[in-house]
Specification:
mainly beta, 3-stranded antiparallel sheet, 7 strands, 4-stranded antiparallel sheet, about 90 residues, single chain
C-alpha cells in the first residue's frame, strides 16, 4: 500500500500553495516551509493553534526562505495556517 498521509507533511507534492513540516528539528521546535508556485513565500503570517485549548495562538512571519519556526511545547494536535498576499 502507499505511504501514510502523516509522512506526506514533510515534502512538496506539487500544489500551488504548500506548507511543509521540517521534521528533523528538536521535538518542541517546529519549522514550516511555505511554498507558492514552487518558490519560498516570504513575509507570510503563519499561525499555530493548539486544538481544544483556550491558550493564545502563536504567530510567526516567514523569512526570505519561506520558513517560520514555532516552539510547540504543549502536547496535542496543532493547526498551522497562514495569511499572505499571493
Amino acid at each position: 500500500m502507499g505511504e501514510s498521509q502523516e509522512r506526506l507533511v514533510d515534502r512538496a507534492i506539487g500544489l500551488r500553495l504548500e506548507l511543509i513540516a521540517e521534521l528533523e528539528r528538536p521535538c518542541d521546535e517546529r519549522s514550516f516551509e511555505i511554498l507558492y508556485e514552487d518558490k519560498p513565500l516570504a513575509d507570510a503570517l503563519v499561525t499555530a493553534t493548539l486544538l481544544g485549548a483556550a491558550a493564545n495562538d502563536l504567530h510567526a512571519r516567514t523569512d526570505k526562505h519561506g520558513r517560520a519556526t514555532f516552539n510547540l511545547q504543549a502536547a496535542g494536535a496543532w493547526r498551522i495556517w497562514l495569511i499572505g498576499r499571493l
